[in-house]
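Lab notebook, page 48
Experiment: co-folding of the full assembly
Goal: obtain a model of how the components sit together before planning crosslinking
Operator: M.T.
Materials (sequences as entered):
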Amino acid sequence: MKEGRFAEVAQEYNKLKLAIPYYDKIQKLTGNLLISNLKSSFPENDYFLILEIGFGTGETTRQILAAADKIGVKIRIVAIDNEIEMLKVATKKIKDRRASFILAGANEFLTDQNQKYHGIVSGFMIHNLIKDQRIEIVNKVLEVLEPNGVFVNADKIAQNDPIAYWKDLVEQMKKIDDLWNQDQGNRKYWDYWRQHYVQDSGSNKMTESELQSLLQPKCQKVEFCERHGMDEICVAVKK
Ligand SMILES: C[S@@+](CC[C@H](N)C(=O)[O-])C[C@H]1O[C@@H](n2cnc3c(N)ncnc32)[C@H](O)[C@@H]1O
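Observation: model returned without errors.
Model output:
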C-alpha cells in the first residue's frame, strides 16, 4: 500500500459519510457484533482484551466502547494505526482510559506480539493492503487471537459475482461524482476518494472468497453480514 494514503484526508475523513450514508450504521454494528460474539465465545469472562487495527479517526473504537457499555462488559482496547495525522484526530476525539492509541504498522506490531487477544477488529483498513500483505496480516491476526477468539472485519469486500461488484462500484462512483459536482470548494478531497476507489477496484481488490479461504481453515465460524453497497462485515471465530 502507498505510505501515507490517509494523511491528506485525516482531518476531513468524517465527510466521507456523505458518500457512504450507512457508515455510522456499519460502525455501530461492528461494535455490537464484536462484543456480542465475545460474550458467546467466552461465556465465563467479564473482561475482554481487544486489538483494533487501523483506528483512523477513532469511530470504530468509539462504537466498541459504546457496545461494551450497553452490554455491560469490561474491555481494554489496544488500537494501532500507522498514520500520525489519524493519531492526532483519534486522541483528541476519544478520551477514555479503556482505549490506548499507538502509532504502529499492523505487520510489525503483530509480528512482535507475545500478547494474545480475545478479540481483534478492523474497520476499512485491510482492503488497503496489497494481496500478499493481506494474507500475511490475516494469518498473523489468527496467530495472536486466543482460541475461540473473535475477528471482526468491516471493510470494502467485493462480492464474488463480478456483475454485482461492478454495479456496486458504479453506484459508489456516482455518489462521489455527485459530491464532486455539488461541493465545489472541496473538489480535491473528492478527487482523492475517486482515485482511492479506482485504485481499489483493480485485480488487487479483496473479495469475499479470498477472506473465506484465508479464514475458514483456522476458524469454527466465518460469516458475512450486513452488506451495504461495496461494504460488508465479516465475523470469524477461531477454532
Ligand atoms: C479507511 S481508515 C478507517 C479507519 C476506521 N477504522 C474507520 O472505520 O473509520 C483506514 C485506517 O487504517 C490505517 N492503516 C492503513 N494501513 C495500515 C497499516 N499497515 N498499519 C496500521 N494502520 C494502517 C490508515 O492510516 C487509516 O487510518
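Interpretation: The mean pLDDT is 94.
Next step: discuss with group before ordering constructs.
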